[in-house]
Write a structure and sequence with these properties.
This protein is globular. Strand 8 and strand 9 form a beta hairpin. Strands 2-1-10-9-8 form a five-stranded mixed beta sheet. It is of the alpha/beta class and 312 residues long. It is built from seven helices and 17 strands. It has one domain: 5-stranded Propeller (L-arginine/glycine Amidinotransferase, Chain A).
Length: 312
Amino acid sequence: MIALYDRHRPFRTLNHMITDASRGTLRSEVLGGAAATPAATPRAYLMCPPEYFAVTYAINPWMRPEEPADAARAMRQWERLRQTYLGLGHEVRIIDPVPGLPDMVFAANGATVVGGTVLGARFRYPERAAEAGAYLDWFRGQGWQSVRVPRHVNEGEGDFLYTGRALIAAHGFRSDPAAAGELAEVFGVPVVSVRLTDPRYYHLDTAMCVLDADTAMYYPAAFDDEGRAALASVFGELIEAKDEDAEVLGLNAVSDGYHVVLAAQATALARQLAVRGFEPVGVDMSELRKAGGGAKCCTLELRGPQIGSERG
């Protein structure tokens, strides 16, 4: 059973839709039936320097406080990521880090932004709760007019990925299942709900990356059967990551439609991308991986008129 949320048709379930014939029907509804070819479009990103980054608590299986992170090395890796985006022609905006919030570097968790509307985060764990207000304050201070405080627990683009026409919303470890309905209400786009099952891949962005409106890469073992079926109904092509690439957070990646910025260690995944016409751009995020993060975790995409145009 696939859960599809749409604010115009509040909640409905679509049964027995994962046959070859029915996949096209659901894809037409969610994606408009269009298949994209790899092509880069300029993006705008929000990032937070890891000035206070440390692993002082454990809220996911990657975090081991007994193995402290090297803050200086984390800063160098983060800066290399920022420079990579600039070199690819993208805009990078900066939010100031807050003392006492070591995970604030993971900007993707701070909000979801589509069409100029911002839905803030509500964190599952108290260790990160104060980040939500810091990100909301940034958006308000930058003049974003439609900034919404969420009703349900959600961890931003950590669990919500935008395809350009729809949102994929994950639950299982962090975000509440009910957050999918809130997404549909706030953004007015279809929302496909999936459940994560492997605690190592506690956020959707550790198990999946949207490459373009018709293509994604993912780790099938991180999802239940219904989730895998739902993703197959949305995307024309799903590139499957092998264990060794998932285990270096190779799927915690950022695509502009052509360039795919991903963990340098995910070499097999990079080869799969290149074969399909994408250009992989490797970055070393191994120090930030000690807290369960990579390139995508450090990157919140800004979409809306405040950055010049809608960017999917």
